[in-house]
Amino acid sequence: MSVASEYLQLQRESSDDMVRRHAPLVRRIAYHLMGRLPASVDVDDLVQAGMIGLLEAARNFATDRSASFETYAGIRIRGAMLDELRKTDWTPRSVHRKLREVTEVVRQIENETGADAADAEVIRRLGITAQEYHQILADASSARLLSLTAPDDDEGGAAFDVADQDGMEPQERVEQEGMRHALIDSIGNLPEREQLVMSLYYEQELNLKEIGAVLGVTESRVCQIHGQALVRLRARMVGWREAESGNGERGTGKGRAARRSG
What we know:
Blueprint: H1 3-12, H2 15-34, H3 43-60, H4 69-87, H5 93-113, H6 119-126, H7 130-142, H8 170-188, H9 192-203, H10 208-215, H11 219-252, H12 254-261
């Protein structure tokens, strides 16, 4: 079915019919997210938020979109659920602090060597045991999704996603598109196994147990690999963000003024 045909069909449907037809998509996304969240998170809260995202998707879907309605709705549904998680962040501050420390060490090593930061070197610089390091990686995977571009602060990061561009100003759209390309490049430069886990998890929507069966490893090991990928991506995206800020300063003369004053 073409995008235009889908749009006309949606126009003919009542809101109740639309919600009923796409409710399985909402529940599927909710249970996929639950695979990385603790039992204290109520799946019904995610479903309720996802239904709101579904209604917004139907209202905003337009014939000039290149994606199908299901693809577009999936983005809006997932975004609404992540917004709900942001508002009720249950992750202890100690977890955010440890993740920031690991991220910074990974950045330092990769900036110095130009290569992927090895676990042994990260552990050595942090002065922790391998067991403690693996627990931090597990927290990175199962905690609220890490922000890849937000500044570090006591509240931790926002969600692992690229925001929808509806309602953005032209400059915001350019910046968002730049971040999207930087994220794609960063994922493409991950170690092969981390790339595969990210693909299976975010594109194929397999859960950690299913990915473990594909790779022939335990679910806990997949959790660690996923955490490694998230930390590595966050380290690289923070570096990208700082580089973009530096370029912006030079473009406005702030960078030149700072050098003259020094």
